[in-house]
């Protein structure tokens, strides 16, 4: 059996074993073993194969694995509850000023106020953006 075939079998076996571990270590070693198989095909020298495997393993574990873990294990941020309302659009139901008003937000009627007392009142029917939720009041800003 040639060394290239041994490297290939080891690489594939490590990649299959990664399915069980899920820690992105075995897949890195499996890919490095495939590099070793490639080195065997190109050079036919076992010492060069081992050196290529070692360098590829260290490089993959130090550089690629952290990036993959960040990418796959953190996932997208999904806001729920009040956090999901920030940035949402609402429609003014009754005039909104710095003290009071009402908007239709996410299918519900919310009490609302504008961001600043220096802004003109926002008239009914106007589309607004929720800037923050303060207690049970939506702080809104008129869209440009």
Structural class: alpha+beta
Rg value = 29 Å
Unreliable spans: none
Write down how many β-strands occur, each being a DSSP E stretch of 2 or more residues: 5
The number of helical runs is: 3
Give the number of domains.
Answer: 2
Oligomer: single chain
What is the first-to-last residue Cα distance?
72 Å
Helix content: 40-55%
Mean pLDDT: 89
Biggest sheet overview: 5 strands, mixed, barrel
Q: What string gives the helices and strands in order?
A: HHHEEEEE
Overview of this structure, please?
- By secondary structure, the protein is of the alpha+beta class.
- The protein folds into two domains: 72 residues, no CATH class; 62 residues, Nucleic acid-binding proteins (OB fold (Dihydrolipoamide Acetyltransferase, E2P), Beta Barrel), CATH 2.40.50.
- The protein has a five-stranded mixed barrel with strand order 1-2-3-5-4.
- Helix 1 packs antiparallel against helix 2 and helix 2 runs antiparallel to helix 3.
- The relative contact order is 0.10.
- The mean pLDDT is 89.
- 46% of the residues lie in helices and 22% in strands.
- It has three helices and five strands, in the order H-H-H-E-E-E-E-E.
- InterPro entries: Membrane_assoc_protease, NA-bd_OB-fold, NfeD-like_C.
- This is NfeD family protein.
- It is found in: Membrane.
């Amino acid at each position: 059996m040639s060394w290239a075939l041994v490297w290939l079998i080891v690489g594939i076996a490590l990649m299959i074993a990664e399915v069980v571990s899920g820690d992105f270590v075995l897949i890195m070693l499996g890919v490095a073993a495939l590099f070793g198989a490639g080195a065997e095909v190109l050079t036919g020298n076992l010492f060069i194969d081992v050196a290529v495997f070692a360098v590829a393993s260290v490089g993959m574990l130090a550089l690629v694995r952290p990036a993959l873990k960040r990418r796959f294990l953190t996932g997208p941020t999904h806001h729920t509850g009040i956090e999901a309302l920030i940035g949402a659009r609402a429609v003014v139901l009754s005039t909104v000023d710095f003290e009071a008003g009402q908007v239709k937000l996410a299918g519900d009627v919310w009490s609302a106020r504008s961001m600043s007392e220096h802004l003109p009142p926002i008239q009914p029917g106007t589309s607004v953006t929720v800037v923050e939720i303060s207690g049970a009041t939506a702080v809104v800003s008129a869209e440009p």
